Amino acid sequence: MTRVIRQAFYYPYQDLLAGQKILCSQPQLVNVTLIQPGALIEEAASGYDISIDKVGVGISYTDLSAAMVEIAMEGRFADIPAVVVTSKAGYDFGRYAGVILPKVVKGLAASFLPGFWMVNDLTARFWS
């Protein structure tokens, strides 16, 4: 499944890796803790978990922002290179399948079908 998701979101991941490389290239200038959320979901906050080993499926925008503030403000995260953040309700794949799977399908289509985004944009304009 990891391979499918990496292929579906290849270009956004490449952008993230390039930005990460720039940020981490001068550790004496800035202390970086990478925050790695699951799928970003528009829903109400349910609380969040910050972990270095426990991975969930999704996180709400509100929970992600609260976790980011805590990570920035708490000294205990200063020497940790990367953390995973997940909403407390974000461990159930079935809850988010309807949001995540269409995005994965669209990402795979964009990876393998030339002109996908042009057709997608034209279709979106026609239906809106």
Please provide a brief summary of the model.
This protein is α/β, with parallel strands linked by helices and 128 residues long. The protein has helices spanning 2-8, 10-24, 61-73, 93-112, 116-127, and strands at residues 34-37, 39-41, 48-51, 58-60, 82-87.
What is the strand and helix layout of this fold?
Layout: H1 2-8, H2 10-24, E1 34-37, E2 39-41, E3 48-51, E4 58-60, H3 61-73, E5 82-87, H4 93-112, H5 116-127
Helix pairs in contact: 1-4
What string gives the helices and strands in order?
A: HHEEEEHEHH
Low-pLDDT ranges: none
Number of helices: 5
The portion of residues assigned to helices is 40-55%
Range of strand content: 15-25%
Structural class: alpha/beta
Strand order of the largest sheet: 1-5-3
General description of the model:
The protein is 52% helix and 16% strand. By secondary structure, it is α/β, with parallel strands linked by helices. It folds into two domains: 61 residues, no CATH class; 37 residues, no CATH class. Strands 1-5-3 form a three-stranded mixed β-sheet, with helices on one face. The model has no long low-confidence stretch (mean pLDDT 90).
Can you tag this structure with a few keywords?
single chain; 128 residues; alpha/beta; 2 domains; 3-stranded mixed sheet; two-stranded parallel ribbon; 5 strands; 52% helix; globular
